[in-house]
Write a structure and sequence with these properties.
The structure holds 2 protein chains of 2 kinds. By secondary structure, chain A is of the alpha+beta class. Chain A contains 5 helices and 10 strands, in the order ββαββαββααββββα. Chain A has a single domain, classed as Chemotaxis protein chec, CATH 3.40.1550.10. In chain A, α1 packs across α4. The N and C termini of chain B lie far apart (159 Å). Chain B is rod-shaped, with a radius of gyration of 51 Å. In chain B, β18, α18 and β19 form a beta-alpha-beta unit. The longest helix of chain B is centred in the first third of the chain and has 79 residues. By secondary structure, chain B is of the alpha/beta class. The chains are: A alpha+beta, B alpha/beta. At the A-B interface, α1 and α4 of A face α5, β3, α6, β4 and α7 of B.
């Protein structure tokens, strides 16, 4: 049993949530494969519920100086943000591999950040599509944005409330010989997760 | 669908500086703004009422529909990046290239709340894309050049390492040479007393009946022995050239003499660092000069063992000081410290006689100390070698052409043999031999034949004398024999044997054959000779007169000097 903000979350709920996200990730991977030169497999994500402090520790554990992130904010039934995060170097390798370019340098230029943004967009849309499917009403979305910063700063100035519930889904991009870990992070305003859980239960 | 009605709703978008296309759930184009019209060169009339797939068939592909369909149902926006979808809306540029575009598709809820439009916002990234591509090309080129430069530098470094290794090999060779030359010099020195020793031992048997003579022999043997022992003592005092073990680190500091090092360096920080490295736990005395000018003064004034020289100084470079030292005949080992990227100068520096060079970038204590010790040792070895060569020159006792002892040796040996302390009631004969008409041989047949005659005569002389006799080339065609323990009959016998053997020898010079004769004069020092009679100069004079007589009497003869 996991406990988030005093409300117990059952293994069954977690399992249902995982299923939901996995369907989304799978959709994303299927779309990526129609677009890209190399075949990509996205692994079934590992799910963890946490708070900001845990996330900070999780990010520190990545051991990377710079992080690249694609963020998709949403607003509707409840609001939050879906984000896909990589160490910047890994992100560039991923982009170069996916578009079939010989990795030249590790600079994140606007061409590469645009491409990474699109890849993130596809994965996150898959996930958000799954989530929004179980709600009758629609979400409003902001245009996905690319964020790059030092790992300790990446969530500063983003106005993430300390009591925000965070759903961390660790997945893995398997492309040919390349094996890239990426984290999908879902931030929910307080109370939103409970509703999501309820909806999940209802399915 | 009434195109004009929709157009009204989206009129605002017409003049935006981004391309805008709006489609409805059936993919029918409902908005095509001016910007997009200009870029694609397709008018509203051409696209109006058509579906996106009719205008651009690629929009029918799954990779687009799979992403656009959810938007038309209110799903999240989709980004079509410039790298993957730069030609989503094909736009040719006047230069033949394509405009590179990035497209963001968002949903727009219909007014009546019944479904969604999909709005394509197209931005032009052509310029930035080409600029980035150019930048990447430049970067690639720079990377390639950097790699090439690295390769060249690596090669240079390897070449320099090879030069260093060769220099080290030369040191080893020089060390051996010094030892060999010292050994050679010593052998020469030992030869003479050893001969006296052996000769006297041989003669000891003949004097068995005469205890007094025997005592004289024993005294000579003991004296020769003590001379040999003196020489051996001298050898043992010769400085041992011991190769130091540099790898140990600490032990190389353990040097007995205090070294005085002049460090020419304008960078104070570098000076302090090197000074620390050099003086750590050692007795080195470091002097500092910060210009070539100051270095020139100090190098002349101080007696410096080694110079550490920065390659570039405010008023010149290493070559200036090296040139100055050459002019001033200052023979001091120099280690040059080079800054960044001056690999190429290493071989030039070596050619100027620099012992070693070190890169400041890779400077550490171990390599610095190794270089300093290495340079000092190399320098000392050279000095030892020169000393040994000098000693060798002094000790050279043989005549090069004939292999007999030379005049210098004769003088020494004759002095010794005739001096009072060396005389123990034994006879001594001095023979001066001169080849007859030798000048004519040289003039007729040339110096080559003349030299051959001298060599042959020397061979005949050597074959006729005993081990302990001393045969010398006295001058041009003149020979001198010192015959110890020899009475006048013995001396005559030896000289006549030489005379006859030479006369018997048939020399060849081209088609000609010729013979050579000699004249000889013998002076005797008898057991009872007075000091004056036994003076070396007296004996030589007497032998000379006798030789002169032999020449006067028609040559080809041996004359014994008359005893007064």
């Amino acid at each position: 049993m996991m406990t988030i903000h005093s409300k117990p979350v059952s293994d069954r709920q977690i399992e249902a949530l995982r299923e939901l996200i996995n369907i989304g990730v799978g959709k994303g991977a299927a779309i990526l494969n129609t677009m890209l030169s190399s075949h990509i497999v996205l692994q079934v994500p590992q799910l963890t519920l946490m708070d900001m402090e845990d996330l900070a520790a999780e990010i520190a554990a990545l051991g990377s100086e710079k992080l690249s992130m694609v963020a998709l904010k949403f607003d509707g039934e409840f609001s939050g943000s879906a984000e896909l995060m990589f160490p910047s170097e890994t992100a560039m390798t991923l982009v170069d591999t996916l578009v079939g370019e010989a990795p030249l340098d590790m600079d994140v230029d606007s061409i590469r950040s645009g491409t990474l943004c699109e890849i993130g967009n596809v994965v996150l849309n898959g996930v958000m599509g799954s989530i929004s499917n179980i709600f009758s009403s629609h979400f409003n979305y902001s245009v996905p944005e690319y964020i790059e910063d030092l790992s300790e700063n990446i969530f500063l100035d983003r106005g993430v409330a300390p009591q925000t519930t965070i759903l961390l889904a660790k997945t893995r991009f398997l492309i040919e010989t390349l094996d890239v870990d990426g984290d999908i992070i879902l931030f929910f305003e307080s109370g939103a997760l409970d509703r999501l859980m309820e909806m999940t239960e209802a399915i | 669908m009434d195109f004009s009605v929709v157009e009204d709703d989206f009129r605002l978008l017409d003049n935006l500086p981004v391309g805008i296309c709006v489609i409805n759930a059936a993919y029918e184009i409902v908005v095509w703004n001016n910007c997009l019209k200009t870029w694609t060169k397709k008018t509203i009339r051409e696209v109006g009422g058509k579906t996106l797939g009719q205008v651009y068939p690629h929009f029918l592909e799954e990779r687009y529909t799979a992403r656009i369909d959810p938007i038309l149902e209110g799903g999240p926006p989709a980004i079509f990046s410039s790298q993957l979808h730069g030609r989503l809306f094909p736009c040719a540029l006047p230069n033949g290239k394509s405009r590179i575009l990035q497209t963001t598709v968002t949903h727009v809820p219909k007014k009546d709340g019944d479904g969604f439009y999909a709005l394509f916002a197209v931005t032009d990234l052509t310029e930035v894309s080409y600029r980035i591509m150019d930048y990447r090309k430049v970067q690639q080129k720079a990377l390639t050049e950097l790699e090439q430069r690295k390769a060249v530098e690596d090669e240079l470094r390897k070449a320099n390492e090879k030069i260093l290794a060769q220099h080290k090999a030369v040191i080893e060779e020089e060390r051996l040479k010094v030892l060999l030359q010292m050994a050679g010099a010593t052998a020469h020195e030992l030869n003479q007393p050893l001969m006296i020793l052996l000769g006297n031992i041989e003669l000891l048997e003949m004097d068995l009946a005469d205890p007094e003579k025997m005592l004289g022999r024993i005294k000579k043997i003991s004296e020769a022995g003590s001379r040999i022992s003196d020489i051996i003592k001298k050898i043992q005092k010769v400085k041992h050239v011991v190769k130091k073990d540099y790898t140990g680190g600490e032990d190389i500091i353990d040097i007995h003499q205090q070294e005085r090092i002049l460090f020419v360096e304008d960078d104070l920080e570098c000076y302090r660092m090197v000074r620390r490295m050099l003086t750590f736990g050692s007795q080195r005395e470091i002097h500092h000069a910060d210009t070539i000018k100051a270095a020139k003064v100090m190098v002349k004034r101080l007696s410096v063992d080694l110079i550490l020289l920065d390659y570039i100084l405010p008023d010149g470079d290493a070559f200036d000081l090296l040139e100055f030292m050459k002019e001033e005949h200052l023979d001091i080992p120099v280690v040059v410290l080079t800054g960044h990227g001056s690999e190429i100068t290493a071989s030039q520096l070596f050619r100027k006689g620099v012992s070693d060079y070190l890169s400041k970038a890779r400077l550490d204590r171990e390599s610095l100390l190794e270089s300093v010790e290495f340079s000092l040792e190399r320098h000392n070895l050279n000095r030892d070698k020169e000393k040994a060569m000098l000693v060798m020159g002094d000790l050279s006792t043989k005549d090069k052409l004939t292999g007999l002892y030379n005049r210098r040796y004769f003088d020494e040996a004759f002095d010794r043999e005739t001096s009072g302390t060396d005389r123990y009631n034994t006879d001594l004969a001095l023979c001066l031999i001169d080849l007859d008409y030798f000048k004519d041989i040289n003039d007729t047949y040339g110096h080559g034949v003349g030299d051959q005659v001298l060599k042959t005569a020397a061979g005949i002389i050597l074959a006729a004398v005993r081990k302990y006799d001393i045969a010398c080339r006295y001058g041009g065609e003149e020979f001198a024999l010192i015959l110890p323990n020899t009475d006048q009959d013995g001396a005559l016998t030896i000289c006549n044997r030489i005379r006859e053997n030479l006369k018997d020898h048939l020399f060849e010079a081209g088609a000609d054959n010729f013979r050579v004769t000699l004249s000889a004069g013998i002076a005797m020092m008898s057991q009872n000779a007075s000091a004056e009679q036994s003076a070396p100069s007296t004996m030589i004079h007497q032998a000379d007169i006798a030789l002169y007589k032999a020449k006067g009497q028609g040559r080809d003869r041996v004359i014994l000097a008359e005893i007064n």
